[in-house]
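Problem 12. The chain below contains 255 residues. Write out its predicted structure in token notation.
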Amino acid sequence: MMKNAPLPTNSQADAIVVEHLRVVRGERDVLPDLNVTVPAGQVVGLLGPSGGGKSTLMRAIVGVQKVASGSVTVLGEPAGSASLRHRVGYVTQSPSVYADLSVRHNLAYFAKVLGAPKDAVDRAIDAVDLASHADASVGNLSGGQRSRVSLAAALVGDPELLVLDEPTVGLDPVLRRDLWDLFRRLAHDEGRTLLVSSHVMDEATRCDRLLLLREGVILSDSTLQELLARTGAPDAEQAFLALVDQAAATSRDRS
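Solution.
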């Protein structure tokens, strides 16, 4: 396993604080005025339909998204600060590793870029349970294994915060379960913070906290139990639909 990442002095501190974030693309406000916090040391699910702004928010958090206004603070620093390079790991939807290189050579490259210690590669490989495939070409691995290589590349720098954009999309139920088990170990056993996006509502049961995002608006920020109690719904999907209906009704009343 990776070594424990240092926690904030206050264990209840927020790893991410987003205030009045506005992101514009063309004529459209993708995120019109978003405020949200992500607690440290938890697995926080960012759930919602495709096109709702999840990837845009994640890009703003890691500092690669142009914003019109507002602020994003990550681990006490402005998003994108050079000081966050080792502290934040980011996994995009598309594989971010080289298919013609082996798992080990991929991670060695990223370790060199980050200036990570020599044992970082082996620790990252062990963390994602790929020791038996360490010398295999990434191009010959399954989709789930490639996803774990991308995650290992993010872990090489021993980050405190992991931002994972739909890491389980297209995977079979067993692989999805295994990745979520890993996410929970990274948070609960090693003290890391994970922000994990998904449009699969049943993954809500695996998160400590849920952010439901639709059309750039946070519909709910709560635990699953709080969400179900608030809506009276039997599961996360029905709760999300109930919140969408409530938002639509409120919009009609105002117009």
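Discussion. The radius of gyration is 18 Å. Students who got a different answer should revisit the alignment rule from Section 12.3.
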